[in-house]
Amino acid sequence: MMILVLDVGNSQIFCGVFDAEELVSQFRYASTSRGTSDEIGVFLRGALRENGIEPASIDTVAISSVVPELNYTLRSCCQKYFDIEPMILRPGLKTGLKIAYKDPKEVGSDRIADAMGAVKLFPDRNLIVVDFGTATTVCAITKERVFLGGNIMPGMRLAMEALEAKTSKLPSVEIKPTRTAIGKTTTESIQSGLYWSNVGMVREFVRQMTAEAFADEPPMVIATGGFSSLFYREDLFDHVVTDLILVGLMEALRLNGYIDAA
């Protein structure tokens, strides 16, 4: 069984293909362009072929989307180009989680999929999941699978773009790790600010959330998202799982009967 899973973010669509349980391909589509169903369909079929996968072999499609205006487009794309009605992760579907938000419908599907993936990979553990996407999110999940909530902040690229757009003289820079906290040029200063502010943010949130929710049993800290690999030197995370949300979507398919339970 070949399964296409789509993580639809504000900046890009992160696509993965599973052959049964094995993730065999990953590729991305810029979602800032808000393409038509035909544009996305042609891209997906072409990307699949470039990765050695025949589009007709796709049996199932799952979607997590934080861009509601793209949902109809993506559904139409799947129907037209794959003859498949996709599973869109939304309120009402089984997640295996108890959502402790005041209004569970407010929780973004990306955060739910991250939590589902983390619980699948690391069962019976208190968890903190840090996702470095367009927005950076930090979420807490108990070993009893209770999604407690968390935090949402501007992501690294969004913060850099805000500096560039809202100031007269600050340029766009490459986002990368820095070894020193004192920049010697404007570019180095921005890079240092972006990097070390995120290091400090993660450390403080982990400390505070552990004190609030996990004082009796410290959590495992999981990182995911495009910029998660930048922080490998800082000993911030127990594990980095860049495809965590794709794992979560596979779990949603299983729980809701789209594919057989593993």
**What is the number of helices?**
6
**Oligomeric description of these chains:** single chain
Roughly how many Å apart are the termini? 13 Å
Structural class: alpha/beta
Write down the overall geometry: globular
Across the major sheet, the strand order is 6-9-8-7-10-11
CATH class of the largest domain: Alpha Beta
Give me the strand/helix succession: EEEHEHEEHEEEHHEEH
What is the percent of helical residues? Answer: 25-40%
Overall number of strands: 11
State the low-pLDDT regions, or none: none
How many structural domains?
Answer: 2
CATH superfamily of the largest domain: ATPase, nucleotide binding domain
Mean pLDDT value: 95
What fraction strand?
A: 25-35%
Q: What's the alpha carbon Rg, rounded to whole Å?
A: 19 Å
- CATH topology name of the largest domain, in short, is Nucleotidyltransferase, domain 5
CATH architecture descriptor text of the largest domain: 2-Layer Sandwich
Q: Biggest sheet, open or closed, and with what strands and sense?
A: 6 strands, mixed
